[in-house]
Design goal:
The chain is α/β, with parallel strands linked by helices. Helix content is about 65%, strand content about 10%. The protein is elongated and about 90 Å long.
Length: about 375
């Protein structure tokens, strides 16, 4: 027991001497609990919506009020034509488009079914399913309310508001098409961040950092030399992922493959520079690995890969804006499923550029030219 007591004391002392690892060990489970508890929801509300109201009547405004009061639709744009609705949905600025016909009042007066077209961006199948269910339910309830005002309880089959849903980009709700673009981002995040997170720490532990420090290399040259070779590795992973998606799962590529590779470069560099930040603040490879996992888990859960960001609270929505994968998932789904051009994705490119600049600047500042 004396010998066992001695080894226990030794381990607790060792643990106390490594406070960073200790903090990560307790902080990581807490972060996961908070994310799952507050940020993850499958009932997606407040979806950005555009409306083309060709009726412009009191009845059409009352119907739109039903949509907004349900909490599932946030009307952010009022379109003047179907082409404008088409453009806003294509660009990803809205997830839902609602089109009301000009003969709405006439149909209601004669108790004829009025087609209400609801366009849903099905590139995000979770959000699309929630929007479709809510729209159909609103149509049924509104029809029932109108008929009750006129006469007795209506028949169940009577639908004055005939909600007709059109699911764009993934009309059959093929799960692989929705998941594969996100998985590509997960693969690149996991490998790129972890590889560079180990870069400086490995040199320090192996004793080769001193040799680099005595060379005439400038800090930015050393850090760039650490990330450039892995950009090619990222291209290889992207190519393999695309070949598997196309060959095995028949995933469509509706946009420019050249644009896809070009914008992938921004994401790869953003992930690599984020790994450099981790590498410069870590003292051991174990710490670097743990901190990489601290980045990896929120990237999977908060980026919109599985759970739509629209369902998250404001705090976690803003937190997801700091993750490169958030913008890469939008780029992948935009190019692969919606066929977006650069004009629709420039915001994501700008965000990745800012993250690259900030991460590389922090890494340069943290990197010490002298051994401590």
């Amino acid at each position: 027991m004396t010998r066992l007591k001695a080894i226990l004391i030794k381990e607790f002392i060792q643990m106390r001497r490594d406070p960073v690892t200790l903090v990560i060990m307790f902080f990581l489970p807490m972060v996961q609990l908070l994310i799952f508890g507050f940020a993850i929801h499958t009932d997606i509300k407040h979806q950005p919506t555009v409306v083309f109201d060709a009726s412009m009547t009191q009845e059409s405004r009352e119907l739109l009020q039903n949509f907004t009061s349900s909490g599932y639709f946030d009307i952010r744009y009022s379109a003047e034509s179907f082409q404008e609705v088409d453009s806003l949905v294509d660009s990803g600025k809205v997830k839902v488009g609602i089109i009301l016909p000009p003969d709405l009042v006439s149909n209601l007066k004669h108790e004829h079914a009025t087609p209400i077209q609801v366009i849903v961006d099905a590139s995000d199948s979770t959000a699309a399913s929630s929007a479709i269910a809510a729209a159909e339910s609103i149509g049924q309830l509104r029809s029932r309310e109108v008929l009750l005002k006129k006469h007795a309880l209506p028949e169940e089959s009577t639908q004055l508001y005939d909600v007709r849903v059109r699911a764009w980009y993934n009309p059959d709700f093929i799960t692989a098409w929705y998941m594969l673009p996100g998985i590509m981002g997960v693969i690149l995040t996991m490998t790129m961040v972890m590889i560079t997170a180990m870069a400086i720490v490995r040199e320090r532990e192996q004793g080769t950092l001193e040799q680099l420090l005595v060379t005439p290399l400038k800090t930015w040259e050393l850090l760039l030399g650490k990330i450039i070779p892995y950009i090619l590795v990222g291209y290889v992973q992207t190519t393999v992922s695309l070949l598997v998606g196309i060959g095995v799962f028949a995933m469509p590529i509706r946009g420019s493959i050249v644009l896809l590779y070009g914008l992938t470069t921004f994401f790869i560099i953003a992930s690599l520079t984020l790994g450099l930040v981790i590498s410069t603040v870590s003292r051991t490879q174990m710490q670097a690995m743990q901190m990489s996992f601290l980045v990896f888990m929120p990237s999977v859960l908060l980026s919109g890969f599985i759970f739509p960001r629209e369902a998250m609270s404001t705090v976690f929505y803003l937190l997801s804006s700091l993750l490169p994968m958030t913008y890469y998932v939008e780029i992948l789904r935009g190019i692969i499923l919606r066929g977006n051009s650069l004009s629709a994705l420039w915001g994501q490119v700008l965000a990745l550029t800012v993250l690259i600049s900030v991460s590389f600047g922090v890494a340069m500042k943290k990197f010490s030219r002298t051994m401590e």
